[in-house]
Every structure is written in structure tokens, then in C-alpha cells.
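User: I'm preparing a small set of examples for a lab meeting where we compare how different chains pack in three dimensions. I only have the primary sequence for this one, and I'd like the structure in C-alpha cell form so I can line it up with the others. Please keep the answer compact; I'll paste it straight into my notes.
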Amino acid sequence: MAQPAEKAYYRFVVLFFNCLLTFGSYFCFDIPSVLQDQFQGNLTCPNATVINGTVDCVEGLGMTPQQYNLLYAIYAWTNAVVVILAGFLIDKLGNRFGVFLFSFLCRIQDVKLLSVTYWLLVLTIMFFYNGIFPFIADASKFIQDKYSYYSQKEAAYIAGAVYDSSLVLSASVGILIDYVGLRGVFAVACAVLTLPVFGLLAFTFVPPLVSTIWLGVTYSFAAASMWPSIPLVVPQATLGTAMGLATSVQMIGIGISNLVVGQILGTKSSETKIPLWRWQRMMIFMLANTISCIVTSVLLNVVDHRQGGTLNKTTKKSGQEQRDLDREPLTQAEEEPNEQDGDAVQSRSINS
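Assistant: Understood. Below is the C-alpha cell output for the 352-residue chain.
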């Protein structure tokens, strides 16, 4: 009789609630970007004037760009600490306290044994997301400052197109990658194809919706190819720890990136419009992270190829290998009777 966890309905229920959890997390993490004007607006607007129905002063919390981006850094670094412990608890849940404490000390030693492939994969994830989340945090303000004909509401919609396109594509992209394989190749392709996004935003006036949709597409492929690769390169017993550690490194990188972005954009809250050259420097910083992602993903593929090509196995190849494994016991079983028959014939010949 099948256990509940093996039944389809049970898995879909778990998946449904997991999606709700992810939605809540991303909603809380990204909603400040829509209200960036209010976070960085002036505390009071005593001399505000109205031009063409638009007030030239926005009342808000009076935060500087540096303080605003610090909010994201604090969130990321808190997450970085919590997920390591959470991953370990998933691996060791149910053990007694003494065994738990001893196992924790052993688990710290096990971290040293994680493969080079794993660490390159973690760095690839970190550098890719360093260009995604810090950009989304400031995207609405960037669009309003560079493309002055967009309102705050329109800029928020355009910035949200990253997630809108990901929402549409993620499921089909995941199915595609499961069918095709080649996760390492997809990781490199995602990084390379993300380069033009920040180039367009930094040095051209191409409508920003093109770039945000484009970024959403590469983000969908990256999420479906990079994170599911972790279980392929670590032992099953350390999977929770490995996932937690990967998320921790990712969040540390994102937190640092947010601080750098805040420093690049300046610290004067009186500047209602951030100069374009500051936004260009921010996009160049995003480009630098993307280039670093390309380097680590290429090294990841090189190391993985030398170690057997686990990440880039195609579905067809994997299926053929499985069929070969399925035939091996049968072949051995066929050979054993033949050997026994040969021995019997030889024995009869000697006796005769």
C-alpha cells in the first residue's frame, strides 16, 4: 500500500503550500521597491508646487538611497544566518539533543568535504542573483529617473515584468530542462544572455520593458537550472545543509551588493532625481556581477566535465545508461547458467 507521501495528491498539496510560502517571501522582499519614492521622499513638503497635475515633492520617510538599500542588506544577511541552521535541522530533525549537538559538530567538518563543483555552483548562483535582486530593489526609481515620462505606477508595473514573465515561463522552462538536461550549459547561457540587459539599461534609451521582460526570461531559466543542480553534486545526507549554505552565500552576496548599490547612488536625500551617471555606475556593477557569473559557470562546466559530466547529462544519455544498468544483471544471470552448463559437460567428459 502506497504511503501518503508517495501519492500524487499529497505532493501537490505540499507544492501548493510551498508556492504560497514563496509568494509571501518574495512579496515582502520586493514590495518596498514599489514604494521607493515614499521611503526616500521628504519628511515634509512645505513649498511643494504642482506642475501639470504632478506634485514636485513626494512626502515620505526621508531615507537616503544608502539607507533604503540597507533595508535589503539587513534582510539578506538575517536570511543568510537562519538558513544554515534551518538546513541542518532538516537533515537532523528527530534526533536527541546529545546526538544533535554531536552531529552538528560533525556537520561543520562535513562542509569541508563539499566538492569544488558544489562551491562553483554556489558562486554561480550568488553572482547571478547579485544582478537580479539589487536591480529590482531600485528598478522603479531608476525607470522614473531615466525615463521621465513614466509615472510611479507605470514604473512599478515595468519593474514587476521581471516576475510577470517568470510567472508565465517557469513551469514550462522547468519541464524543458528536466526533459533536455544540460543544466551546466543552461547556467552559462543564462549568464551570457543577461549581459545585454544591463548594457541596454546603462547606455541606451530602449524602452525598459524590453529589458525587464528579457531579464525575467533569463531569471526563469537560471532558477530552473541552477538550484535543482545542487542535489546532483552533494550526498543526499547533506542536502539540507548544502541548500541552506548555498542560500546563505547567496544572501550574503545580495546584502553586500545592496550596500554597494546604495553607496553608488549617493547619500543625499534632498536629491529628488538621482543623476544618470550614478545609475550607469550601478548598471556597470550589475554587469560586473554577471561577468563573474559567466566565469564561475564556465569553470563549473569544466570541472563537471572532468568529473564525469553529471550536470550536463542529457535525458537520452541518462535513459541509455539506465537501460544498460538494467541489462547487466540479466547478462550476468545468463552467463552463470552457461558457465555451469560448461562445467557440467566438462565433468561428464572426465567421468566418462
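A couple of notes for your slides: The first helix runs from residue 8 to 34. The first strand starts at residue 50 and ends at 51.

User: Perfect, thanks.
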